[in-house]
Each structure stands twice: as C-alpha cells, then as structure tokens.
Specification:
alpha+beta, two-stranded antiparallel sheet, 2 helices, single chain, binds iron/sulfur cluster
Length: 126
C-alpha cells in the first residue's frame, strides 16, 4: 500500500500540500500539515513540498501486506506438506507388494474347471 507521511520537523506550514491535495492534507492544531487520507497517494506529492517534508512510499508493514505475506507463507508450507505426503505415499506404494485379485481357472473337481477370483498372494502351486 502506498503511504503518505509528513515529517513535522521539516514542515513549515506553507499550505502548498493542503491547497494542491485537500483530500489528503490539512493543517493540524500546530498549523502544520497532517495526512488526513491515504487514498490516492502518489509520488508527485513529494515534489510540491519546498522542504521535502512529504514522503510517499510503499508500506510493506501494513496489516494488508502482512496478511498477504502470511497467507503466501502458509500456502507454501501447505504445498510442501502435500508434496511430502505425496512423495511418502508414492514411495510406500512402489516399495510394497500390491496384491490385486486375478481371474484364474481352478480345478475343484474332476469336471470342467471353473473360473474364480482369488488374490495373487494365495496362488496355489499347481
Ligand atoms: S508543502 Fe510541505 S512545508 Fe508546506 S505545509 Fe505541506 S508539508 Fe508543510
């Protein structure tokens, strides 16, 4: 967020900022300029002050920016956790014997063989 500040030690109270940007500056009880609204802050505001008392800058410590930064960090942590979980699952799956059912003809009597579904782990030695 772009932020405006007036250095009270440099302000002479000339009123240039108050007349050029009345929506952003006004005189305080000491007759010096104060910021009354941050909306519409722009770098050109610094140029009208004869004493360079006006500073316009990107404030990265604002609540909005802090929330955004926190959200990005949280998303990165969650993404890493998901990547690790997928990696673990993949390793566990590829390193383990997976048993799947298969169709196999099994001789259960002297008649014709019938088709049955049995797990691979229980294969008989016929
Ligand atoms: S232009 Fe600068 S010196 Fe003049 S009132 Fe504004 S901040 Fe103060």
């Amino acid at each position: 967020m772009t932020k405006i500040e007036v250095d009270q030690t440099l302000c002479l109270g000339c009123g240039m900022c108050c007349s050029m940007y009345p929506e952003n500056f006004d005189f305080n009880e000491n007759g010096l300029s104060s910021v009354i609204n941050q909306e519409g802050a722009k770098k050109e505001m610094m140029d009208i002050c004869p004493t360079q008392a006006i500073k316009v800058f990107e404030d990265t410590t604002s609540t909005e920016e802090a929330v955004k930064e926190h959200t990005n960090k949280t998303a990165a942590v969650e993404e890493k956790a998901i990547e690790d979980a997928v990696k673990d699952t993949t390793e566990n799956t590829t390193n383990k014997k997976v048993e799947t059912p298969t169709n196999k003809k099994v001789q259960v009597s002297n008649d014709e063989p019938i088709e049955a579904t049995i797990p691979m782990a229980e294969e008989d030695n016929e």
